[in-house]
Amino acid sequence: MPVCSICNKQSKPELLIAYHLRGLQEGYFKCKHCGKRYSSYFTDKKVRNLQKQLKKEQGGQKRLEIVEQIKSNMAQLKLKHG
Questions:
Q1: Consecutive sets of 10 residues in the chain, 82 residues long: mean pLDDT of each?
Q2: So where are the chain's domains?
């Protein structure tokens, strides 16, 4: 279980989703003791479309390319919004 960086208490994270402007979605959880918010990930329409494509791919190089695109795009979103 994660330990909060503010109150130093453990709590089981419950994933919540926040919907922001321009289709941005943020997955996050809050400390149940002090309310500190921890962003877990961000997705936009492009990332979610890539995730849909990934589900359709059976394997091979194309699947690996999609995974790398998703990782890269999500890292950029987290840097920009996190």
A1: 94 95 96 95 97 91 95 96 88
A2: 16-81
